[in-house]
Every structure is written in structure tokens, then in C-alpha cells.
Design goal:
Elements: H1 2-33, H2 36-63, H3 66-89, H4 95-123, H5 129-136, H6 138-157, H7 160-179, H8 195-207, H9 210-238, H10 243-267, H11 273-290, H12 297-325, H13 331-365, H14 374-377, H15 383-405, H16 407-410, H17 412-415, H18 426-433
Length: 437
Amino acid sequence: MKTFFVVWAGQLVSIVGSSLTGFALAIWVYQETGSVTMLAMVMVAATVPGIVIAPFAGALVDRWDRRTVMLASDTAAGLATGAVAWLLFTGHLSLGPIYLLVLVGSVAGAFQEPAWTASIPMLVPKRHLGRANGLAQTGQAVGHLVAPLLAGALLVTTGLWGVLLVDFATFIVAVVTVASVRIPRPERTRAIEPVVQEARDGWRYLRVRSGLLGLLVVMSTINFLFGFVNVLFVPLFLSFTNELALGTAFSVAGIGMLLGTLLMGAWGGPRRRVRGMLGLLAAGGVLVAAAGLRAAVVPVTAALFGFMLLIPVINGTSQALWQLKVDLDMQGRVFALRRMFAQAAAPVSYLLAGPLADRVFEPLMSGPLAASVGAVIGTGEGRGIALMFILMGLALSAVAAAGYLYRPIRDLETDLPDAAGLVEDPQADVRSSTPSS
């Protein structure tokens, strides 16, 4: 696993650098424009291009050398970051280059992420895939934990250009680490076709594998429901406490996520992956619902900590399952489709969360439901959002239960054989070849 750890270290540094830029750019755009709409447009530019191009990027990832794709993606994103840093340093930065930066980053991510994810099974013995995927999430956890503090310190001392410069340096680290190793290419078992046709092949591949398609629907629905939680957590928390407690809660959540990645890296996840993952999703739904029961800092923070602790285990287990069951020369296309569905689900809930909270649930808790539901969870500001948390948490658990009741998902591990060509553990081979006494 030496090659995996070399590439992983570079990606870890790069993801943390990108987290710094994402946090700092949001502050800079809002301070420069004073417009939430402009900030939202930057966020759209950072997500939509990657969603649109994902199926075609996945087809090209399967066609091209994945190491080269990762090098090109990191290089493009790094050069865009460096160019924006130079424009800012020379006093010529405007919103136009910011849009270009996040657009390039979105497109580069559409290539880089499936290439990296599809490379892991070529580098790691299949019995360690859960651990490897747990470690692969460490960058996100560390980014959540340190980005606000480090980016804030850099903004105060050097300004935005210092943050961008640090991010540019982390891209160099990522490029150097990938360039220093060799990543095997999977044997291609299908003829090369036009890119549009190969992009469609990813969808056809899933349609005839009902277990994988059902799992995709379950996880996309989970992302849709979690999108509400993601948007509404800040207003829920601020409805009964202050910004200092909110910042503390986010730090605690970052610690929970980091501990979850370390747990996944050491444990590797449940042995029965599908049932373990669905069980953890159901438990996560209970924690989300619990966050809406009381307007108090400690129980809500504890629920958030527990939920973020579970996220890396759930994601790592799911990722290992897909890497085991999808043919190696199809993983770029299939993983790109997974990314597209995951990213497309969240913006829909982002758009719905505000109107539902302001126009439906908050009025309900100060009117028709005040005497019934309000007697249990309280009334006043934010309790409509709290009711949404309870409903979303119950829905999360219900979706997990539905996934378990659907036999093709429940029996996915036994119905589908492992992909051919996966790396076997040499020690396991030695043990299996030793005669029993």
C-alpha cells in the first residue's frame, strides 16, 4: 500500500488547501459585494459545471490513464488558483476571475475525484478497501476542523492572496506525489466507442444491476434529506444560542468527523457492508431527529457530533462496496454518475429548505401545532425548523429501512460477484496456500 499512502498524503494536503480557499472566498465575495445572491451564484458556478460534465468525464477517466487525469486535474486547478492569487496581489481581481476559478475547480474535480476513487482498488488489497476509503476522507475532516481557524488567521495577516498562495502550494504537493508513483491501469474489456456512447454505458451498466441502482437511489435520497439539515442547522442553533456556541458546535462536529475517519481507517467498517451501512444510516436519522427535540446547546451539539462521527464510516463502507462490485474498467463512468447524483440532490433541498421553514413549518409551530407538537418540543422562534429536523431524521431512518427491505440491495454482496482484477492481499494468499494440519 506504499503507493496509496504517497498519493493519499498529497491529496490530503490538497483537500485541506482547497477547504481554506472555499472558506476564504465565501467571506471575500460577500464582503466585496454585500450580496447573498452573488455568493449563491459563485456556489452555483462551483457545482453545476461538474454535475453537467460528470458522465463524460467518467467515460474519459476509463479511457485515459488515471494517473495522467489526476495530474492534469490538479495542475489545472492549481494554475487557476495561482492566477487568481496574482490578480489579487496586483490589484486587478474582480468577480469574473473568481467565477472562472470555481468553474475550473468544478470541472477539474469532475475528472479528479472519479480517477482517484477508481485508482484505489488498483493500489489496495480488497480486504483493506474500507480502511483506505476511511483514510481518503481524512482531508475533508481536517479541512472542516482547521479551515475556519487557519483561513481566518491568513485573512487577517496576509489577506485572500495568502490563502490562495497556500492553496497553490498544496496543489504542487499533490502533483509531485502523483507524479512520483505508478498507478496500474485496469485491463479494458470493452471496445472504445464515442464518448457520448460510453457515458451512456455507465447508466446502462447500473440499470441491469438493480442492487447497485437501488443503492444509488437510497444514497441520493439521503443526500437530498441531509441537504435540509445542512442549510437549517445554523438558524436552528442561533434560534436559542449565540455565534460563539455555534462555532464551538462546528468545531466539535469537525472533531467527530475526524474521529470517524480514524475509526474507519483502523477498523475498515462492518464485515457485512450493506446491512452495517443501512443500520448506521438509520442510527444517524435518529440523531438528526434528536437534535430537534430540545432547544439546548449540549444535546444538539452531542447529536451533531454523533452524526458526523458516523458519516465517514457510512461513506467509506459505501465506497468500498462500489469498488468491490463494479468492474474496474467501468468504475470511472459509474463513480462519475454517483458523484453527479450526489451533487445534484443537495441543491434541490437547498432551494426548498428556506421557503418550507419560513412559510410552512415556522407558522405551523406558532399556530395550528403549537398546542400539540409544541407541548413536546416547545414553541417560538426556530421550533418549526426543529420539527423539520425531527421529520428529516425520521425520513432518513425510513429510507435506510426501505433499502434493507428491498432484496436486491440487502443481498447485493452475495448476488454480485467481486470485480475481476482486484488486488489480493499477499499474506492472505500465503495463508490460503498453507496446508492445514
